[in-house]
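fyi for ur records
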Amino acid sequence: MAARPVSLCHWGAFEAEVENGRLIAARPWPGGGADAAMIGAWPQLVHSDRRVVRPHVREGWLKHRHRSDGSARGSDAMIPVGWDEALDLVAAELERVREMHGLPSLFAGSYGWSSAGRFHHARSQVRRFFGAFGGFCDQIGNYSWGAAHVLLPHVLGDHDAVASAATGWDSIIGNTDTLVAFGGLNPKNWHVTSGGAGFHHMPDHIRAARDRGTRFVVVSPLDDDIPTGSDADWIAPRPGSDTAILLGLCHAMLERGRADEAFLARHCSGTETFFAYLRGDADGRPKDLAWAADLADVPLETLNLLADRIAKGRVMLTAAWSLQRAEHGEQPYWALIALAAMLGQIGLPGGGFSFGYGSMNAVGERARRDLVPELPKLDNPGGTAIPVARIADMLEFPGRTIAFNGRAVTYPDTKLIYWAGGNPYHHAQDLFRLERLWARPETIIVNEQFWTATARRADIVLPATTSAERSDIGGSSRDPHVFYMPRLVPPVGQARDDFAIFSDLAARVECEAVFTEDRTEEDWLRHLWAGTQQAAGAQDIAAPDFDTLVAENVWRVPQPERPEVYLEDFRNDPDGHALKTPSGRIELASERIASFGYDDMPGHPAWLAQQEWLGTAPEGALALLTRQPARFLHSQLAQTRLAGTGAPPAVLMSPADATARGLADGDEVRVSSPRGACLATLAVSEGCRPGVVAMETGPWFVGDADGGLDSGGNPNAVTADRPTSQLAQACAAQSCLVRIEATVR
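which gave:
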């Protein structure tokens, strides 16, 4: 192994310095541009005193097994046991539940951010194991862009526009006159890419576009969503009003004769239905700019100027993922697509729309797809699946049937939860509700690296390795690199990787051959890489053999000759490259969605008021926006020095709102809603719209169920656990009203 091997994490590639089996330093890969502080926290992460170093079993469960009191989770002592005892207990419990209650009563949860490595990808490992076991209750979708995941196939034929495809920055730099970013282009989000990245060049792209003449407009209640160097104009609407603004702009294009009738006729369907809604044919209320300005609480002149700007030149429209994490979150994405279609520039260089430039690093980089390997899936023959954000509902309402994307989903009666590679006490909403319901399953098992809130509330905890303690292959389809990730240090304590844990369990429950296919870790890595070599050959490029990849540590993938222009082929030949929608076109109105009959999801883009929003807020209420941390990835790294002094995390508030409440910068405050409360430290900011406050979601949940107060400062203690709509049933965390007051100690 090289003296300073290169490895990869979701916040970038890094060089590792190892001495005597310990990771003592980590530095960004030269030229990659990763955040040095985040990369530098790796030694603290790997050798944290919060590591789970031995298998543990909750004392009450050890005595009474599945008949134990689940409400004691989080308060019972955790008893260390040996690996054989722990695995025997897990295997026996899996078989008991399967035989007594059926496979759907086994809920196997995970999330995709536990490792940049693709073989040791926890969600793939847990799904593969339970597929080999015969089946389980799975999760559909994700928290990041769950509403778009369901909506976009109805409108565009697939969800590539949010998952993998975007017009490249080279195309924007060379062609775009105006870029309008709904939800902003927050630079903090550019530290992170799912699967990791070698390049972190988004700031360079912004500056290059500005220098070439691109004018930026950022639509967000927070001015730190404006990237440095963009010289962007700032429009600060009420949270949740983006759809109204977009519909008002659509109406303006229609009334001013700016709608591209030729593009709409050849490339879109449902145009007349949508236009009738804009005109107000049914409700008598045109969705004009005056209507939009009133809902958004911004000057009408501001929206008129924006309409003037997008009516000429090459225009790129984009929206952050956060916009669709709200009640009716499907609507701003659909309305943005409709506006881009009316402008008629979809498929042109630097024009049209794309999503996520402000949500993650490397969106719009010039890179090839299908070259990062994935662990093959197994079927889920005896199982079922629920929308990913409906976990608490599943626990509270076994047997209830809900609508979801045109079909019915029935919640199973969950007896056992097995979680690997994730922390639901971070990403779920209304955490005190989740904690109450967490007592209901008979058994909860987790594979975990750290004593997170989830691990502390489990019955059996199996210590898992970090990616520094195992070998893997990592990368992203948005970045032109694939990395071999060598094991940097031996496993900490008795930790084992998920593949080893599930292999041992599979042997005990007699599905080892199906799960492992008689391959070791190295066998799998070689097998997966052979698939990459084949995929590279199909693109007329040569990938190195596996041994060369290992020796060189990184493959710099040849970049495509031209930047991507999203939907370019469809624009040029809508018949030969028809979309996978019923019409083969962009659906500005969807007969399929309309046929579902959902009262919260009409068959065209529409304005629907959220239950909690400033337009109807009671006096003193504030709109809470929750967002990714500046220096964490979700709740990862919160146990390092990056977490700061130990004071409650910050809540941003405008000077006017602070003065009205008698609060000052640095005060400890209580943020509350009908769901619960959390502590925070007030940060007064001129860049925060009055009536709006903002918190980061990274702090570990501590919780006090009796008092309903999270001293750890996780804002999901107060957010509402309601779906975006019956269509997507996705996370709607951004629709939340709170009150803030000084704490009394």
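The chain has four domains: 6-46, 56-139+371-532, 165-368, 614-742. thats all i got for now
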